[in-house]
Write a structure and sequence with these properties.
By secondary structure, the chain is of the alpha/beta class. The chain has five helices and five strands, in the order E-H-E-H-E-H-E-H-E-H. Helices cover about 45% and strands about 25% of the residues. The model has no long low-confidence stretch (mean pLDDT about 95). It holds the Pfam family Response_reg.
Length: about 120
């Protein structure tokens, strides 16, 4: 079990559904509705994993990841997005994103990724 996960998602229903599942795989689950709040939580908490949407208001996932990478090059980050644009994929690769899970989220893929971190 991971100690802590930050889940950044602006769609409330998605956040609730995925959050209920993530609770089973970590001791502390933190939520943020946008990248700005996600970055603030990152600065205050010791995190094992960040799962983030890309398209969000106030600060999108790419901007948040860029700011986080300025402080921590190694934290594990997983993106969830409905987009499969090649430019987005290049940006995520350049930002050392560990996985990109297409929306709608295949929960089994996400769980397998989390389980692989527990080894």
């Amino acid at each position: 079990m991971l100690e802590s996960i930050l889940y950044v998602e602006d769609e409330e229903i998605t956040a609730q559904m995925i959050g209920e599942i993530l609770n089973d795989y970590c001791e502390n689950l933190y939520f943020a509705p946008n990248g700005k709040i996600g970055q603030e939580i990152f600065k205050k908490k010791k995190l094992d994993l960040i799962i983030t949407d890309i398209q969000m208001p106030i600060m999108n996932g790419i901007e948040m990841i860029q700011k986080i990478r300025e402080e921590d090059k190694d934290i594990v980050i997983v993106c969830t997005t409905g987009s499969c644009e090649i430019e987005l994929q290049k940006s995520l690769s350049n930002l050392n994103v560990h996985a990109n899970i297409k929306k709608p989220i295949n929960i089994h893929t996400l769980i397998e990724f989390i389980k692989s971190m527990e080894v």
